[in-house]
Amino acid sequence: MAWYEEAVFYHIYPLGLLGAPKQNTYGEVVHRIKELDSWILHIKEIGCNALYIGPLFESVGHGYETTDYKKLDSRLGDNEDLKAFVAKCHANDIRVIFDGVFNHTGRDFFAFQDIKQNREHSAYKDWYCNVNFGGNNEYNDGFSYDNWGGYNLLVKLNQRNPAVKDYILDVIRFWVSEFDVDGIRLDAADVLDFDFMKAIRSLANEIKPEFWLMGEVIHGDYGRWANGEMLHSVTNYQLHKALYSGHNDHNYFEIAHNVKRLYEMGGNCIEGMRYYNFVDNHDVERIASKLTNPSQFAPVHVLLYTLPGVPSIYYGSEYGIEGKKEKYSDDSLRPALQLSEMQENENMTLVSKLGKIRQEIKALSYGAYKELLLTNRQFAFSRIAGDEVAIVTVNNDEQEAEIRIPALNGETYVGQLFGKTYETKDGCLTVKLSANSGEIWVKKA
Q: Per the confidence metrics, is the pTM higher than 0.85?
């Protein structure tokens, strides 16, 4: 089995976590990334065995306006620092994937600078989409071009240009040979050229065993991107929305129906459901800020770790820290944190338990999914792989709930979070759940 089939991810936005300056002066290198060494053991201790980190490479501001794909951002350190960091992660059995920002570059990227200098005579004038030397922009370049999201700071690459494609493929080869990276999260994959992604997948199959490609996709049929020819996985924004709104509205039907739709989208098999599941990230508000009732942190995370897909925790959210978009700024979503100042609490304890349970119970990675019980406020389903049976129960009510799930008589189920044991009788597994809680029941052999 591939490593990513059993992955539990931790997600770091390094420029934020390490408190780097908002603007890059391209001056003296500051070796901030070395401060992440203390986080490696923390990542392992909370049951994560994979790290998604980025953006990492030289840029002018937030990291997604790349200046140099082959140089660690000087606000974070140098290439030797990054090489050492990945090696330390690997020594602790943690896989590492980088952010691949290949849809656009920053204006300081060499190809764009050449166009500014040489205009129509630039060898790179076709590296970007719809460069128009009869137009202009707010920078008064004397030409216009396509961008991402309406921001001329992010100049859209022409991925159908063979020279651009070859350049990016060379960057990926460099990342593997120089840093030994295990995969890439493709930024803005929902607007990347499909043939371009197919070329990246072909390269991934060659350069390193089990090299993982995950794409940032918001809406649509995920199977268009996640398939045998393109990406292995995509960001599961559909489940992300259902997880918080389904709890805020006391509506488990929304979550269950979402899972059913995703299951169908994935070909009604668990292999087609290895989407990247999350409840928050560097672009959306923290889960602790989105939940109307903070106590629902528990059932939300039980579902995150047990529903089909690859679970991910965004740095700091294991402690239940808050973060909201303010005045169109993402700064509060990407705060500087000192691990030594973070205090363990019930949220972190729960996430740590869930991470270890996820790694120990293989049915949560490979098991077929089956809905067993569904009401507005209670939800139960099974994950079965061979002889291993796990039943997951969650309760979003402010009151204790007793639920009955059809099961064979004479079976014994042990709760993995709280240790209670129940035996089946009268054709049911009958369990009690505290208010706003969940449990993972594993059948004793």
A: yes
